[in-house]
Amino acid sequence: MELKNLLKQIFYPKNLTCSVCRRESFSGKSICEGCHAIMPYNNKSVCGHCGRATPYSVEYCDYCKDKQTYIDMARSVYEYEYPLSLLVRRLKYGGERYLAEEFAESMQACYFKSIGYADCIVFVPMTDGRKRDRGYNQSEELAKALSKLICVPVIGDVLVKTRETESQVGLERRERLKNVKGSISIRNRALIKNKRLLIVDDVMTTGATLEVIAEKLKDAGASEVVAITVASVTSKKWTDASREDEISEKSDKEEQKN
Ligand SMILES: [Zn+2]
Ligand SMILES: [Zn+2]
What we know:
Layout lengths: L2 H9 L21 H5 L35 E7 L4 H10 L5 H17 L4 E4 L4 H7 L3 H13 L8 E3 L11 H9 L2 E3 L9 E9 L3 H12 L4 E9 L5 H20 L1
Parallel strand pairs: 1-6, 2-5, 5-6
Antiparallel strand pairs: 3-4
Protein backbone atom coordinates (compact mmCIF):
# COMPACT_ATOMS: atom_id res chain seq x y z
CA MET A 1 0.00 0.00 0.00
CA GLU A 2 1.21 3.47 -0.84
CA LEU A 3 2.31 5.51 2.15
CA LYS A 4 -0.16 8.25 1.22
CA ASN A 5 -3.10 5.81 1.40
CA LEU A 6 -1.85 4.24 4.59
CA LEU A 7 -1.69 7.64 6.29
CA LYS A 8 -5.15 8.43 4.97
CA GLN A 9 -6.50 5.25 6.57
CA ILE A 10 -4.90 6.07 9.89
CA PHE A 11 -6.02 9.67 10.10
CA TYR A 12 -9.43 9.44 8.43
CA PRO A 13 -11.74 6.67 9.68
CA LYS A 14 -13.31 4.71 6.81
CA ASN A 15 -16.92 5.72 7.35
CA LEU A 16 -17.15 9.45 7.33
CA THR A 17 -20.71 9.42 6.09
CA CYS A 18 -23.59 8.37 8.32
CA SER A 19 -25.40 5.29 6.96
CA VAL A 20 -28.77 6.79 7.92
CA CYS A 21 -28.75 10.53 7.15
CA ARG A 22 -25.74 10.49 4.78
CA ARG A 23 -24.29 13.51 6.55
CA GLU A 24 -20.76 13.57 7.81
CA SER A 25 -20.30 11.46 10.93
CA PHE A 26 -17.86 12.96 13.41
CA SER A 27 -18.09 10.11 15.90
CA GLY A 28 -15.81 7.87 13.80
CA LYS A 29 -18.75 5.42 13.66
CA SER A 30 -20.92 4.53 10.68
CA ILE A 31 -24.00 6.03 12.31
CA CYS A 32 -23.75 9.65 13.50
CA GLU A 33 -24.53 10.56 17.08
CA GLY A 34 -27.87 12.13 16.17
CA CYS A 35 -29.11 9.05 14.33
CA HIS A 36 -27.64 6.67 16.87
CA ALA A 37 -29.73 8.36 19.55
CA ILE A 38 -32.95 7.47 17.75
CA MET A 39 -32.11 3.89 16.71
CA PRO A 40 -34.89 1.61 18.04
CA TYR A 41 -32.81 -0.77 20.17
CA ASN A 42 -34.84 -3.72 21.39
CA ASN A 43 -33.17 -3.66 24.78
CA LYS A 44 -36.02 -3.15 27.22
CA SER A 45 -38.57 -5.82 28.10
CA VAL A 46 -38.85 -8.69 25.66
CA CYS A 47 -40.67 -12.00 25.39
CA GLY A 48 -38.35 -14.68 26.78
CA HIS A 49 -39.20 -16.91 23.85
CA CYS A 50 -39.49 -14.88 20.62
CA GLY A 51 -37.56 -11.81 21.78
CA ARG A 52 -40.18 -9.32 20.56
CA ALA A 53 -40.55 -6.13 22.54
CA THR A 54 -43.23 -6.41 25.22
CA PRO A 55 -44.62 -3.85 27.70
CA TYR A 56 -43.00 -5.84 30.54
CA SER A 57 -40.82 -8.98 30.69
CA VAL A 58 -42.75 -12.19 30.11
CA GLU A 59 -41.79 -15.77 29.48
CA TYR A 60 -44.24 -16.05 26.56
CA CYS A 61 -45.89 -13.04 24.94
CA ASP A 62 -49.51 -13.08 23.78
CA TYR A 63 -48.35 -14.18 20.39
CA CYS A 64 -46.21 -17.13 21.56
CA LYS A 65 -48.55 -18.32 24.29
CA ASP A 66 -50.31 -21.62 23.54
CA LYS A 67 -48.60 -22.00 20.17
CA GLN A 68 -46.57 -24.93 19.02
CA THR A 69 -43.15 -23.65 18.07
CA TYR A 70 -40.02 -25.26 16.73
CA ILE A 71 -37.74 -22.35 17.49
CA ASP A 72 -36.23 -22.74 20.93
CA MET A 73 -35.43 -19.06 21.27
CA ALA A 74 -35.22 -15.98 19.07
CA ARG A 75 -33.62 -12.60 19.70
CA SER A 76 -33.38 -9.38 17.71
CA VAL A 77 -31.16 -6.35 18.08
CA TYR A 78 -33.71 -3.71 17.09
CA GLU A 79 -37.41 -3.15 16.78
CA TYR A 80 -38.41 -2.70 13.16
CA GLU A 81 -38.93 1.07 13.34
CA TYR A 82 -37.42 4.11 11.63
CA PRO A 83 -34.53 4.68 11.06
CA LEU A 84 -33.55 1.00 11.32
CA SER A 85 -36.33 0.06 8.90
CA LEU A 86 -34.78 2.41 6.35
CA LEU A 87 -31.38 0.72 6.70
CA VAL A 88 -32.89 -2.74 6.33
CA ARG A 89 -34.64 -1.69 3.13
CA ARG A 90 -31.38 -0.28 1.80
CA LEU A 91 -29.71 -3.62 2.51
CA LYS A 92 -32.53 -5.63 0.92
CA TYR A 93 -33.55 -3.53 -2.03
CA GLY A 94 -31.00 -0.76 -2.37
CA GLY A 95 -27.89 -2.84 -3.03
CA GLU A 96 -26.14 -1.51 0.09
CA ARG A 97 -24.45 -4.78 0.92
CA TYR A 98 -21.93 -3.23 3.34
CA LEU A 99 -24.76 -2.75 5.83
CA ALA A 100 -24.69 -6.50 6.56
CA GLU A 101 -21.29 -6.07 8.18
CA GLU A 102 -22.50 -3.15 10.24
CA PHE A 103 -25.56 -5.04 11.45
CA ALA A 104 -23.44 -8.10 12.23
CA GLU A 105 -21.45 -6.06 14.72
CA SER A 106 -24.54 -5.29 16.77
CA MET A 107 -25.81 -8.87 16.34
CA GLN A 108 -22.55 -10.14 17.79
CA ALA A 109 -23.24 -8.49 21.15
CA CYS A 110 -26.83 -9.74 21.14
CA TYR A 111 -25.66 -13.28 20.34
CA PHE A 112 -23.22 -13.47 23.22
CA LYS A 113 -25.64 -11.85 25.66
CA SER A 114 -28.79 -13.84 24.86
CA ILE A 115 -28.11 -16.82 22.61
CA GLY A 116 -24.83 -17.94 24.15
CA TYR A 117 -23.60 -20.57 21.73
CA ALA A 118 -24.37 -22.47 18.53
CA ASP A 119 -22.63 -25.22 16.58
CA CYS A 120 -23.42 -23.88 13.11
CA ILE A 121 -25.17 -21.00 11.36
CA VAL A 122 -27.79 -21.34 8.63
CA PHE A 123 -29.53 -18.55 6.75
CA VAL A 124 -32.91 -18.09 5.10
CA PRO A 125 -32.48 -19.29 1.51
CA MET A 126 -33.50 -17.42 -1.64
CA THR A 127 -34.26 -18.86 -5.07
CA ASP A 128 -31.41 -18.58 -7.57
CA GLY A 129 -33.53 -16.23 -9.68
CA ARG A 130 -34.20 -13.83 -6.83
CA LYS A 131 -30.57 -13.89 -5.78
CA ARG A 132 -29.51 -13.07 -9.33
CA ASP A 133 -31.96 -10.14 -9.45
CA ARG A 134 -30.85 -8.74 -6.12
CA GLY A 135 -27.16 -9.54 -6.50
CA TYR A 136 -26.96 -11.26 -3.13
CA ASN A 137 -29.04 -12.84 -0.37
CA GLN A 138 -29.08 -10.42 2.56
CA SER A 139 -29.57 -13.25 5.09
CA GLU A 140 -26.51 -15.01 3.72
CA GLU A 141 -24.51 -11.77 3.90
CA LEU A 142 -25.55 -11.27 7.53
CA ALA A 143 -24.77 -14.91 8.36
CA LYS A 144 -21.28 -14.71 6.85
CA ALA A 145 -20.46 -11.42 8.54
CA LEU A 146 -21.70 -12.66 11.92
CA SER A 147 -19.89 -15.97 11.48
CA LYS A 148 -16.55 -14.17 11.29
CA LEU A 149 -17.26 -12.25 14.49
CA ILE A 150 -18.53 -15.12 16.63
CA CYS A 151 -16.35 -17.86 15.07
CA VAL A 152 -19.26 -20.19 14.30
CA PRO A 153 -19.23 -21.73 10.79
CA VAL A 154 -21.98 -21.10 8.23
CA ILE A 155 -23.36 -24.17 6.51
CA GLY A 156 -24.81 -22.88 3.28
CA ASP A 157 -25.79 -26.07 1.50
CA VAL A 158 -28.49 -27.36 3.82
CA LEU A 159 -31.53 -25.18 3.11
CA VAL A 160 -32.73 -24.69 -0.46
CA LYS A 161 -35.53 -22.47 -1.67
CA THR A 162 -37.07 -24.32 -4.57
CA ARG A 163 -39.74 -21.86 -5.67
CA GLU A 164 -40.90 -18.31 -5.10
CA THR A 165 -43.64 -17.87 -2.47
CA GLU A 166 -46.59 -15.72 -3.35
CA SER A 167 -47.10 -12.51 -1.43
CA GLN A 168 -47.59 -13.11 2.30
CA VAL A 169 -49.46 -9.85 2.80
CA GLY A 170 -52.93 -10.23 4.23
CA LEU A 171 -52.54 -13.97 4.90
CA GLU A 172 -53.34 -15.60 8.21
CA ARG A 173 -50.53 -17.33 10.08
CA ARG A 174 -51.65 -20.81 9.08
CA GLU A 175 -51.81 -19.85 5.41
CA ARG A 176 -48.40 -18.21 5.60
CA LEU A 177 -46.91 -21.38 7.07
CA LYS A 178 -48.42 -23.51 4.33
CA ASN A 179 -47.25 -21.04 1.73
CA VAL A 180 -43.64 -21.18 2.89
CA LYS A 181 -43.55 -24.88 3.79
CA GLY A 182 -43.65 -26.23 0.26
CA SER A 183 -40.99 -23.83 -0.95
CA ILE A 184 -38.03 -24.92 1.19
CA SER A 185 -36.21 -28.25 1.14
CA ILE A 186 -33.28 -29.74 3.04
CA ARG A 187 -30.08 -31.33 1.79
CA ASN A 188 -27.04 -32.80 3.53
CA ARG A 189 -28.88 -33.84 6.69
CA ALA A 190 -25.73 -35.35 8.18
CA LEU A 191 -24.30 -31.85 8.63
CA ILE A 192 -26.97 -30.80 11.11
CA LYS A 193 -27.60 -33.99 13.07
CA ASN A 194 -27.65 -33.35 16.82
CA LYS A 195 -26.45 -29.78 16.31
CA ARG A 196 -27.61 -26.56 17.93
CA LEU A 197 -28.28 -24.36 14.88
CA LEU A 198 -28.52 -20.59 14.67
CA ILE A 199 -30.75 -19.19 11.93
CA VAL A 200 -29.75 -15.68 10.84
CA ASP A 201 -32.18 -13.34 9.08
CA ASP A 202 -32.89 -9.64 8.64
CA VAL A 203 -36.38 -9.13 10.06
CA MET A 204 -38.76 -11.35 11.98
CA THR A 205 -42.27 -10.24 11.04
CA THR A 206 -44.76 -13.03 11.83
CA GLY A 207 -41.91 -15.51 12.19
CA ALA A 208 -43.64 -17.91 9.76
CA THR A 209 -40.55 -18.45 7.63
CA LEU A 210 -38.30 -19.04 10.63
CA GLU A 211 -40.82 -21.50 12.11
CA VAL A 212 -41.00 -23.52 8.91
CA ILE A 213 -37.23 -23.65 8.65
CA ALA A 214 -36.89 -24.66 12.29
CA GLU A 215 -39.44 -27.43 11.86
CA LYS A 216 -37.58 -28.78 8.83
CA LEU A 217 -34.22 -28.59 10.58
CA LYS A 218 -35.56 -30.47 13.60
CA ASP A 219 -37.23 -33.09 11.43
CA ALA A 220 -33.85 -33.53 9.80
CA GLY A 221 -32.16 -34.20 13.15
CA ALA A 222 -31.07 -30.82 14.60
CA SER A 223 -31.22 -30.92 18.39
CA GLU A 224 -31.96 -27.23 18.93
CA VAL A 225 -32.80 -24.29 16.69
CA VAL A 226 -32.32 -20.70 17.82
CA ALA A 227 -32.65 -17.55 15.72
CA ILE A 228 -31.17 -14.09 15.59
CA THR A 229 -32.47 -11.25 13.42
CA VAL A 230 -31.47 -7.65 12.96
CA ALA A 231 -34.99 -6.57 13.90
CA SER A 232 -38.37 -7.88 14.96
CA VAL A 233 -41.85 -6.51 14.48
CA THR A 234 -44.22 -6.46 17.44
CA SER A 235 -47.39 -8.34 16.59
CA LYS A 236 -49.68 -5.29 16.31
CA LYS A 237 -47.57 -3.85 13.52
CA TRP A 238 -47.21 -6.90 11.27
CA THR A 239 -49.58 -5.89 8.55
CA ASP A 240 -48.01 -2.46 8.15
CA ALA A 241 -44.49 -3.89 8.10
CA SER A 242 -45.16 -6.53 5.48
CA ARG A 243 -47.07 -4.05 3.34
CA GLU A 244 -44.21 -1.59 3.61
CA ASP A 245 -41.89 -4.37 2.54
CA GLU A 246 -43.97 -5.23 -0.46
CA ILE A 247 -44.13 -1.60 -1.56
CA SER A 248 -40.33 -1.30 -1.29
CA GLU A 249 -39.83 -4.42 -3.33
CA LYS A 250 -42.16 -3.17 -6.04
CA SER A 251 -40.52 0.23 -6.26
CA ASP A 252 -37.14 -1.47 -6.33
CA LYS A 253 -38.20 -3.56 -9.31
CA GLU A 254 -39.60 -0.51 -11.06
CA GLU A 255 -36.38 1.36 -10.46
CA GLN A 256 -34.42 -1.51 -12.02
CA LYS A 257 -36.62 -1.38 -15.11
CA ASN A 258 -35.95 2.33 -15.64
ZN1 LIG B 1 -26.95 10.38 10.82
ZN1 LIG C 1 -43.13 -14.12 22.17
